[in-house]
């Protein structure tokens, strides 16, 4: 017998990832960050762009972020890394008043949980015009530089913001980042790319929509949230 997905009946805290979740994958904003990460790795390790790319992706898979790998393996300082890789053009992001209105109608608190920095998150939320709807941003610094999907990161987030996981929902674009939230009792939503648009992602990043720890899947976050507001 298949287990029914968790529902949103008693949810009073709504937790959102940032990049490729609160804006569509096909904006490819992360592609800019991805390129900056490659440049950073190449310059720091004094290797070719091709070798840097391989190292970057290996660390991303093994450590959760390339930054964590560079810190662990090569002694990189987080501040230097974050300042460099988030120097991007945020102008491809357009205001999304419909999503803002849908978020505003959700009952309870709204929080951001991101492996990025608060500075980057602030710029993204400002461009989208939805920053006022969120109580706080829990970033990689608040996580003591341990990225999702590390279990202690979620535990610290829940503790810092007094969140009851069994009354919370988590929205993410990476299925592996929903494993621990689901184990903790959160209702999980995987945000996947619009199939009609071209996206720049690794194949493994797009996996997992059928996993047992994914309660719901959507390729239209605004529409999904609007549906919850009506429910």
- Can you identify the CATH superfamily of the largest domain? HAD superfamily/HAD-like
Portion in strands: 5-15%
Number of domains: 2
- Can you list the strand order of the major beta sheet? 3-2-1-4-5-6
Largest beta sheet, briefly? 6 strands, parallel
What's the architecture of the largest domain in CATH terms? 3-Layer(aba) Sandwich
Order of helices and strands: EHHHHHEHEHEHEEH
Secondary-structure-derived class: alpha/beta
How far apart the termini lie comes to 26 Å
Q: Could you tell me the number of beta strands?
A: 6
Secondary structure blueprint with pairings:
Layout: E1 13-16, H1 29-45, H2 49-63, H3 66-74, H4 78-85, H5 97-105, E2 109-113, H6 118-128, E3 136-138, H7 151-160, E4 168-172, H8 179-184, E5 187-191, E6 216-218, H9 221-230
Protein name: Putative hydrolase of the HAD superfamily
Organism: Bradyrhizobium erythrophlei
GO molecular function: hydrolase activity
């Amino acid at each position: 017998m298949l287990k029914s997905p968790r529902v949103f009946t008693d949810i009073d805290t709504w937790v959102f990832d940032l990049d490729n979740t609160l804006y569509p994958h096909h904006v490819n904003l992360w592609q800019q960050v991805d390129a900056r990460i490659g440049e950073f790795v190449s310059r720091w390790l004094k290797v070719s762009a091709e070798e840097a790319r391989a190292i970057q992706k290996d660390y991303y898979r093994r450590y959760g972020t390339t930054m964590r790998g560079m810190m662990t393996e090569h002694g990189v300082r987080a501040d230097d890394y974050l300042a460099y890789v988030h120097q991007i053009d945020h102008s491809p992001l357009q205001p999304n008043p419909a999503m803002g209105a849908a978020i505003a109608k959700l009952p309870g608190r709204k929080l951001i949980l991101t492996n990025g920095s608060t500075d980057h998150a602030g710029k993204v939320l400002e461009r989208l015009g939805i920053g006022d709807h969120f109580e706080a941003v829990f970033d990689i610094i608040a996580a003591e530089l341990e990225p999702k999907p590390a279990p202690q990161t979620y535990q610290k987030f829940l503790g810092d913001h007094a969140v009851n996981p069994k009354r919370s929902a988590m929205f993410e674009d990476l299925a592996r980042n929903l494993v621990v939230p689901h184990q903790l009792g959160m209702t999980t939503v995987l945000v996947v790319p619009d199939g009609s648009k071209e996206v720049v992602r690794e194949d493994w990043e797009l996996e997992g929509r059928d996993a047992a720890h994914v309660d719901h899947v959507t390729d239209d976050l605004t529409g999904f949230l609007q549906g919850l507001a009506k429910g």
